[in-house]
Amino acid sequence: MNDRSQMNKFSLWLLAWPIFIEVFLQTLLGTVDTLMVSRISDDAVAVVGFSNQLFNALTTLFITIAGGAGILIAQKLGSKRSEEARTIAIIAVKVSGMIGLALSVLLYLEPHFIARLLNLPERLLPLSDTYISIAGGGMVLTALMAALSTVIRNTGNTRGPMYTAVGINIVHVLLNYAFIFGAFGFPQWGLTGVSISTLVSRLLAVILLFYMFIHSFERKVGIADIRLKDRKLFKEVLRIGWPLGVNMSCWVFSQLAIYTFLAVLGTKELAARTYMNTLESFCFMLGYAFALAVQIQIAHLYGAKRTKEAYQSAYKALGIGLIVVSFNALLLFLLGKQLLGLFTDDKEIVAMGISLLALNFLLQPGKMLNMALGNALNAVGDTRYMMIISIVSMGIVATGCSYVLGIHLGWGLIGIYCCMIADEYVRGILILFRWKERKYLRKVEDGSPVNHLDAPRGGVRLEV
Fold first, then answer.
1. Rounded to 5 degrees, what angle do the CA atoms 426, 67, 29 make?
2. Which of 142, 149, 299, 340 has the most CB atoms around its CB within 10 Å?
3. Percent of the chain at pLDDT above 90?
4. What residues form the membrane-spanning segments (predicted)?
5. How far apart are CA 48 and CA 183, in angstroms?
6. What is the Cα–Cα distance from 167 to 175, expressed in whole angstroms?
7. Which residue from 279, 246, 241 is spatially nearest to 394, judged by alpha carbons?
8. What is the DSSP string of 225-241?
9. How far apart are alpha carbons 231 and 234 in whole angstroms?
10. The pTM is what?
11. CB of 400 within 8 A of CB of 320?
């Protein structure tokens, strides 16, 4: 592949639009999935929602590996070191699979203990035993999906994971329909059927992604490569990846704490925030797609030592993202009453939601600032800085101040939402100043290696 076609492959729009379609359809079909599960019972929805929060928290364990590997793969491809990129990809998939397998065994064998440990209500325990043991038993498939999708996406092929995600989500919804309503000659298996549907769709996804993975590099990946090791490259992955995992954990636990505060305020406040969370996801997903795309693009440019282009790419993605999310926030505000009416007839909840939609004008630009420039810092390997400011801001501003304003001072839902907005801007402004420093970019311009573990290598050292 010549340099021109390689760079076209890593252009912002070509990377972004498949990511957007993938995220949009996953969100849309996820909403449909939730509505279908609600036909079983409200308890079933509660169990699925609770279990998915648990699964999301556990995914941070292998996202650490997949996230760090993805950034390094794009960097290595940019610096024409495709063999190292290939080695990193194989190691990432292998290690992620091993972590996922350990989690699968734990969730399959001890669903009751885990549910009790997390204080799930007694009446939900029988349903949770079923769902956590079956769907959670497939965490190895989730780990492989995350690793394979990340690896493939960071080679510049964002269409492959998009097609796979669309296909398996359609299969999942169809199987849910069959197992919940007894369609197509299937029995009505209820929540057990939903669990099986989840496993089958994930298995199909892994098979498709493995096929793409095998052909993602100049040299085809073979069975013998499973024995491939390289301690130095794995240290690079961990150096970038573990702060990503901590960063994601901060967000997961801060959101969990905020939902706990909302539960203290009452069910209506909790419901209003839940509905807003769904609407917001549609609001910022196109901006999120550009943020993911620019991370891949900047990592590739950084590896190629094209630092000026890498620096400007972040601002280009930020500018486009700000226009998009601001327009979406306006549209959401104008249609807010009608959209909230699709979820609830409670006038008090709708009124709360509309007031939050007004504040959403402030939230979305801050969130976009974080996503675009935060991913830019991740792309050049500055993940520890991101981790530190996330720990401080999410811990003090998002979580601590939410309790003080929302609960202690009695500002309620509005107070908590204002603290969430403040957290986005505190982190966003700190990230903006960090990116303007060009710290990692200047190191490359001064002749330093792309990352501190890089050194002249006559080839990829393999330990077999």
1. 85
2. 299
3. 36
4. 54-75, 87-110, 130-151, 163-184, 196-217, 237-262, 282-302, 314-336, 348-364, 385-405, 411-433
5. 21
6. 12
7. 246
8. GGG---HHHHHHHHHHH
9. 5
10. 0.80
11. no
